[in-house]
User: Which sequence fits this backbone?
């Protein structure tokens, strides 16, 4: 199994946008990503929070989440409550435990080559964006 991460995506209103679901489904279908666990949160304008899992969805709503491999209950009630604090009022969020499935194949290749990973760190998105958008000042000669 590859590295697991918690990924939370928030959308304004009471539903996730279909583009997000389609993109997640595509990543699962092409073997890049596995969704190990999923929970949904909705925070109303007054700050009241409701959370629910796939088993609580209506039959017609479940079709959009066929990409979820299996729900393993890795997110605790405490995890969900802590994350819900960060959700904006009048917004919905999907909390996922994801596996970067492609790394499993890389890990096998590394083992077969008798190699090893010596550094594996995630660069925070704001630092990566700043670095990629940085423009060196023109140099005068």
Assistant:
């Amino acid at each position: 199994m590859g590295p697991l991460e918690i990924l939370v995506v928030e959308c304004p209103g009471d539903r996730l946008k279909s583009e997000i679901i389609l993109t997640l489904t595509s990543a699962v279908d092409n073997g890049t990503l596995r969704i190990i666990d999923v929970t949904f949160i909705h925070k109303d304008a007054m700050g009241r929070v409701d959370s629910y899992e796939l088993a609580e969805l209506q039959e017609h709503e479940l079709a959009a989440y066929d990409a979820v491999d299996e729900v393993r209950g890795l997110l605790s009630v405490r995890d969900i409550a802590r994350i819900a604090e960060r959700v904006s009022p009048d917004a919905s969020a999907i909390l996922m435990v994801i596996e970067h499935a492609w790394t499993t194949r890389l890990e096998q290749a590394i083992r077969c080559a008798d190699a090893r990973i010596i550094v594996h760190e995630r660069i925070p998105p704001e630092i990566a964006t700043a670095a990629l958008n940085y423009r060196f000042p023109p140099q005068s000669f």
About this structure: The longest strand covers residues 33-43. The first helix runs from residue 18 to 29.
